[in-house]
Amino acid sequence: MKILRKLYYRLRPGQRRLARRLFFFPADLLDSLLKRRPNLVPPRGRIFTGQGDFAGMGDNYLGLLVHLGGLKPHHHVLDVGCGIGRLARPLVGFLNEKGRYAGFDIVPDGINWCNRQYRQYPHFSFLHIPLQNDLYNLNTEAGAASFRFPYENEAFDLVVLLSVFTHMQPDEVENYLGEISRVLKPGGCCFATFFLITERSETYLAQSAESFFPYRHADYFLHNPRVKNANIAYRYPFLRQMIAKAGLEVRVLHEGWWAGRERDACVDFQDVVILRKPL
Predict the structure, then answer these.
(1) Which of 59, 125, 153, 238 has the fewest CB atoms within 10 Å distance of its CB?
(2) What does pTM read for this prediction?
(3) What's the pLDDT tens digit per position in 4-38?
(4) What CA–CA distance (Å, rounded) separates 131 from 147?
């Protein structure tokens, strides 16, 4: 597995997606012929974010957003790094006629697929934003550190980032937190996942035979120095400083099972942080 991961990261972003499409082509072709792919579920070869059951994970995140993030059917939701619609799919059956969904992503493949599949849902919108990221997109010089979200102030009740901050550098995280604060309504929440370096997780990494984050900087750890955005873990005190600077507050932290915790005691593999914009 470790050797395959190293080979994978030696490919360019477009090559990685092509390799996945080729690998899953036989299974995807069979699914198409037998018409057994559920509505709004993409072919496996086109999925470029996350692992596991696409629909099952989306349904699980919807449940977490309702119970932990306070999501209501009439809310306006922003899905940052929406990928190919993993969260959008279950929200189709949850948001009512007053609810709205907006998603954007730096990979055009997912956005193009979603714009075709969600045409009958006018309260759902998807935007491609070409930003540079050495894991997903090298076809532009534009950076996330200076990007302004294309939405009005205080437009959303809930902002969601599923495994997005885990692929961003510190200046990019700081900018996105500021933008989240700007587009959130007062009292609104942000549901975000991270790899957080706490006393517990740092001890776990130190005791691991092969640490997932062996390349350490003062405030963050890297998984791969060649592809710096592959996976990034942040020291929790450093992250809290950026959160406070953005005018947000941590409502609750749910530690994930990535760092050795019992799976049944966690809500997700990654650490889940619920942020709130004060009234």
Answers:
(1) 153
(2) 0.91
(3) 566 666 667 677 677 777 877 787 788 788 878 88
(4) 8
